[in-house]
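Hey, I'm writing a tutorial for new members on how sequence and structure tokens pair up, and I'd like a real worked example in the thread rather than a made-up one. If someone can provide the structure for the chain below, I'll link this post from the tutorial.
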Amino acid sequence: MGRFRDALAGGGLSAIAEIKRRSPSAGALRPGADAAELAAALAGSGASALSVLVDERFDGSLADLRVARAATAAPLLAKGFFSSAADLEAVAGAGADAALLLLRDLDDELAADLLKVAVSLGLDALVEAHDAEELGRAIALGADPIGINSRDLSTFRIDRARQLELVARAPRDRMVVAESGIRSRADAAEAELAGADAVLVGTALMLASDPGAELASLLARPLVKVCGLTRTEDVEAAAAAGADFAGFILAEESPRRAERVLPVPDSVRSVAVLVGELRETGADLVQLYEREDGHRGRDAVLLRDGEQVARVLDLPWESDDPGHLERARTAEGRIVLAGGLSPENVADAVEAVRPWAVDVSSSLETAPGVKDHERIRAFMQAVR
């Protein structure tokens, strides 16, 4: 495998930042954009690799690939509609480390031939699938990495649910990239929890006033779950402040018990907090504690479709533990840090533990289940 794939295998979720001036679906995105300037900014803001559109339908060209190569040492993915050895030779000559192969446009024989050409040129090939049939073909071809695109290139509509289903079905021994429709931290996290190793982010960056800062905001901080929500106005305040998860405690003994999981904005994913037993809640994720002596146990698991995707490390019920942060720091895997967090201490906790996510509730309240919107904003600012 080459530089492109290796760059996505660093552990955790990687990001491929895409440079494009327009798209057939959204029209003009960033007319006249300087590919070299964008490449340097995005590489410096945490992108593991860059994607450069070289097709004229996106106002791209091989010249963009050349200037991006001159501007950064980051691995470059050439994106276009490639169907011949000459196409791959051209992008390799312009500085690409990888090329996109769209199974929608290639039969298996041609795709296999192009994969061999890519190897001979030292290119990785990101083989893109849009449906279950194409995913099966990609697997059979031995493709690695595999791209799962949520956008139907015939209608340009995005189907995130289908993308996540396909990501979850892809073999775990292949590098999987979720493409299209990534506009928020929650979108990226959702793809990660489904099994994606990387996400490709384009339109959201190109529409931002500062693409580098926008990318950094997607990568540089842990995810944030505001829990104990019971009111729609508090859900909206959490989303507006930049929270990624909205937590709804459904355990009857909790003073922050919500009657149900409330609707959440598109930028947020819902989490149902249960104690003792699983049940259907309609939430995107479930945080499940064991029940001990009539109350929740110390730690929980985060579940997606009934499967564990993270551990929640919490404080003991109604007590403290001076070793809590050290315990979390040395834990392995995807960790959600919970218990005792506030706007005043979360920055130090994040620095000490480097968790995947943080979970906050009571320190943001004026009363159980009633949030102080200013403290929500202060917490989000402290996490950043």
